[in-house]
Amino acid sequence: MSSHDLVKWCLLISYFYGRFTGVINFEVDIKTGRTRVTRRATICAAFSQFVMFGILASHLLNTQELTSVRFIVNSTHEYVFLIIAIFRLICVFLAMVSRWCQRRHFVRLFKSFRRLYLSNPDIVRYCRRGLLSKFICATMSETMQVVAVLVMMRNQLSIRSGLAVWALLSITAIINVIITQYFIAIAHIRGSYIILNQELRSVMAETRSLMPDRSGVYVTRCCCLADRLEGISRAQSDLQALAERLSRTYQLQILCLTFTYYLNLVGNAYMVYSLMKYKSVTDEWPKAVLFLGSVYLVFYYIDCWLNSFNVFYLLDAHNEMAKLLGLRTLLQPGLDRRLEAVFDNFLLNLARNPFRIRCFGLFEINRMNSVVVGNSLLTHSLLLIQYDVQHFKL
Questions:
Q1: Residue 360 buriedness (CB in 10 A; 0-12 / 13-18 / 19+)
Q2: Closest to 171 measured CA to CA, from 93, 275, 65, 57
Q3: Are 95 and 261 in contact (CB under 8 A)?
């Protein structure tokens, strides 16, 4: 099986997983790729979400039962994990409300990406490594979490506790589905940018080789290059507009899931510290749980890294396009007027409409802000650990 076929299978599994969790509340014809809102899709998605949130709501009334799947040594553990669980539930609930309120927008967005793929199927070649890596990491982290919880609760698993575990793990599944969908969309835009950059390099190379002599051949070549450059400019403008539509449609979900990831990363840091401090707690644990937990953390952090750099690589592809156009100053002087005008308009459009990925205007996703978030994560994790050190002794 080729890597192209593997990507298709990954996308197919992601689609059916989204339908099963209720994240995708419309149908997609697998053969034709056409989307439609049907009563069956609406009922299935609503039923799945109603059952999951209903079970979780009933278990939220019992703090002890909710936290029984985790280790609890002191009151800080109880408060931290309870707060994380509640905020995860609230954020996922708001994200799902957004999916219902903007269902038509999601359907139109899916159609736009389908047209983007049909216009150039080679897009998959330039993003398949990222898609496969994302699928493997998300699958492994979720699988390790499920297996670790089942091994941990093997002697006290009942129907009620099993439903609670299933509902909690469904929250993780919904988060992974939404993030994976956004990842796939960004990866396709990045693949399109890579193709445009290759075409732009070719145009720049041919333009550099031109010798202005005002002959008929020279004018014809300039007109041909101007047409190609105009096509690249239109395609770039369409891609940027598509990326902005994607950000607007996903902005509430991005905000909620970013907050969820933030809490999870702080909680994971505190959990690792607690396991090292309270070693007696893990003495009775099966060795398999510690191994599965370690593997889960490795894949979870790799998955976070992939999610972040997928966006960064898209921004890099856009910046590379701007740099290529900046090499226009090295071209021969005295080019055809139309070709000069196309270069000027392309550069002016990029300058007037800088490519940014924003969320509600609250923050912008880029490398600089990711460093700020990383410092904040480290600070809050250390504050939580310091509080534990000061108030709880072995």
A1: exposed
A2: 93
A3: no
Which token pair is 310? 């997928």
Helices and strands (H and E) in the chain: how many = 11, 4
* Domain extent for 15: 3-391
* Average pLDDT for the chain: 84
Closest residue by Cα to residue 16 from 147, 149, 173, 162? 173
User: Could you report the per-residue pLDDT of 148-204, keeping only the tens digit for each?
Assistant: 888 877 777 677 777 777 777 888 888 889 999 999 999 999 999 999 999 999 998
Torsion region of 332: left, alpha or beta (phi above 0 gives left; psi -120 to 50 gives alpha): beta
pLDDT digits (tens, 9 = 90+) for 86-139: 888 888 888 888 899 989 999 999 999 999 988 888 898 888 889 999 999 999
What's the total number of domains in the chain? 1
Write the burial class of residue 313 (CB in 10 Å: 0-12 exposed, 13-18 middle, 19+ buried): middle
Q: What is the bridge-based pairing of β-strands 358-359 and 27-28?
A: unpaired
pTM greater than 0.85: yes
pLDDT at site 121: 86
CA dihedral 320, 124, 171, 164 (to 10 degrees): -150
For residue 70, give the DSSP letter. Answer: S
